[in-house]
């Protein structure tokens, strides 16, 4: 049976593993769902940072060094915006602005975010399926000691400096998960759901909290595997470790496994965290210990292969154990 | 008495004389009103070509060679838009896009086009007053052998190729002229109204046809002086001469004087057209024959000085002749 992989991804780290998976799997074998809780309207443009990071990465036009944005980007519009006294804390490159112009115009013309994403991906030659988690707006709000902040306000404008106390996903209760997300989870062809090494609180949680998604994940016959974004107590990128600390949780991969709890069947941690494996296994979670830091294409493909092999092993084990 | 000059301008040619006038007059002595009949929504952005051409020109950041757009402009967003299959027939430079982003966002937030224009001009250091002819939308429609076309569709997309039969200014009947336009026309301090060498049919006509403007021009004590955009049967730039021909009018400065008719007191023609002066004078219009082609800053200032001197002469003559 041909197996399909469903990957749930945030931005930078998630996009890296998504690229690895895309290198290993044919278009029909991989569906990537991206968080849209970070989406926002900026300068009148509809910006979808995680979707675009994954899209640019898969299209091979992303800025691999910084992990987001476009390679060889120019910043003329931003300079001019600065001269007008417009907001420049969120840096939009000239080519990136074209993406947002097209998206904003199509959304205003009544297209859904999925339709727009399909068009953009098609134009950029992205062959694998990339879906927004929902066509309905969900907006991640970060509760901090500086008040409740819209995500990008916290993340970019304030450089994650405020102390985090919790999160709220505005609109989540009435947002419908993308139909294909639920279809894939219910499909007998599903080989695994892979939760990419993205921030669990702000990148993965919005996807999991969409009505029906957790239940569908639990009901899915395929294993759910999460890759830890925390390596040796630190995040490769972003505020995940800082958030763990501020939420009074240990800054460890183990705490991430705890966060996902019994929703996941398998957890992938870095070699550096091998000592945590027994404690995580005690929770009934299978653990794969491999190199997880993705510095180059080879690392990404290597991790993707290991995750896919882990998924096969979990499926076979399941098949063996089930009477 | 300190005299104020009111200049009515379209894009390229008008902006050149506006710059000359701005060099000669202090900020409080010059108000420039720009045509907004060419404005349109493009790629979800509110674009005001004539306003921007005048603004960039006065700010000293315009592309003097092509007469519109910005000097040293880059085109990355346009390239990317092309890759998305978006419309690229109207070329928006990266820095220019910043202007449209700011304008669009402020308009959507409820500011008037005048307020937005004041902000943009302020940021760019434009000291003289630049006003849109109206805060209400007026859209020039060109009636052609290819049907009725929105102005930019005719002008840019179809490069003025269709044969013109007439014009319609959508929204003109309910559009209110900018209050300061009428105030200036009624002011006893007005020294002259200068109709810049812009296309009479599509750049000047929308301003004249705004309810109350023609009547205010006729009632104004100050002379109304038009500068011919036609020199030796050709337009320095744009389709004015082609339009004259297609409308079965002579391709001459004289035909432009006829078009303005008794609305104007004085008409400025180029040395090359000196032979037309007697016929125009027969219509009761005073004629100034001077070099009108503006290739450089000196030409612009030179023409501005001559137009201002012509205005003074017409005022003095009027003062002498009036019993």
From TrEMBL, chains A, B:
GO MF annotations, alphabetized: LPPG:FO 2-phospho-L-lactate transferase activity; magnesium ion binding
UniProt entry keywords in alphabetical sequence: Magnesium, Transferase
Keyword Transferase recorded: yes
Pfam families, sorted: CofD (PF01933)
Cross-referenced CDD domains: CofD_like
NCBIfam families xref list: F420_cofD
HAMAP family: CofD
Designated name of the protein: LPPG:FO 2-phospho-L-lactate transferase
Organism of origin: Aromatoleum tolulyticum
Lineage: Bacteria, Pseudomonadati, Pseudomonadota, Betaproteobacteria, Rhodocyclales
């Amino acid at each position: 049976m041909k197996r399909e992989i469903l990957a749930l991804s945030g931005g930078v780290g998630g996009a890296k593993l998504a690229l690895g998976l895309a290198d290993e799997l044919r278009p029909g074998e991989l569906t990537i769902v991206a968080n849209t809780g970070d989406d926002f309207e900026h300068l009148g443009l509809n910006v979808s940072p995680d979707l675009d990071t994954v899209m640019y990465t898969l299209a091979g036009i992303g800025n691999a060094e910084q992990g987001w944005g476009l390679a060889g980007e120019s910043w003329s519009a931003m300079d001019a915006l600065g001269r007008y006294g417009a907001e420049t804390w969120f840096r939009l490159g000239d080519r990136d602005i074209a993406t947002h112009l097209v998206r904003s115009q199509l959304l205003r013309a009544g297209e859904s975010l999925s339709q727009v994403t399909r068009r953009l991906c098609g134009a950029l030659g992205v062959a694998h399926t990339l879906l927004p988690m929902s066509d309905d707006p969900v907006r991640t709000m970060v509760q901090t000691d500086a008040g409740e902040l819209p995500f990008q306000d916290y993340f970019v404008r304030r450089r994650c400096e405020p102390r985090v106390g919790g999160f709220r996903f505005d609109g989540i209760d009435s947002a419908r998960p993308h139909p294909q997300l639920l279809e894939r989870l219910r499909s007998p062809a599903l080989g695994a759901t892979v939760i990419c090494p993205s921030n669990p609180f702000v990148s993965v949680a919005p996807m999991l909290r969409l009505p029906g998604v957790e239940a569908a994940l639990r009901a899915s016959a395929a294993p759910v595997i999460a890759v830890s974004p925390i390596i040796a107590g630190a995040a490769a990128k972003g505020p995940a470790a800082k958030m763990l600390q501020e939420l009074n949780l240990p800054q460890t991969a183990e705490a991430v496994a705890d966060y996902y709890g019994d929703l996941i069947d398998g957890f992938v941690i870095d070699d550096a965290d091998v000592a945590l494996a027994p404690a995580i296994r005690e929770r009934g979670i299978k653990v794969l210990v491999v190199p997880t830091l993705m510095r180059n294409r080879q690392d990404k493909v290597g991790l993707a292969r290991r995750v896919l092999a882990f998924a096969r092993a979990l499926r076979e084990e399941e098949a063996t154990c089930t009477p």
